Amino acid sequence: MMNLATEALAYKKALLWNVVTLPEVIQWADHLITVEDNPDPQLYEISLANNNHQANDALTELTKEASILDVTYKIIEMLARKASKNDINYKFTADILYRMACENFILDEDSQFEMSRLTDALYLAEEKIYGDPEEIKTEIRQFLNQYATKK
Predict the structure, then answer these.
(1) CA angle 112, 76, 41 (to 5 degrees)
(2) In terms of domain of life, where is this protein from (predicted)?
């Protein structure tokens, strides 16, 4: 299981990038409050947050010992879960992968190239310049599945 700081940073970035919603972050905090013997007080702050800013402030307090690699895997897992439920916007997902690569939330050198390439590939395919949009969407799903199950 991921440590609290790493999970908190994953949710903080996911909330900032609109991968998850405030109710999903609150649900995560509520779950931890109910299962932990001595929950961190910041989890209560998250649970009571009325907006993203309040949740972000509380999440920031929890992120001091976070592992960037574990955070990256967690966000990929969140995106893969949405894809598996067909709750995926491919342009949004490709843009998030690109943003993650730009901010060095990468899994390895190969993934950094793919994370950067997919957004351009999807754009070119959708504009009918080069490639097939359905093939690129399949590549996005494959990328997410490959790395969501790797850790």
Answers:
(1) 120
(2) Bacteria
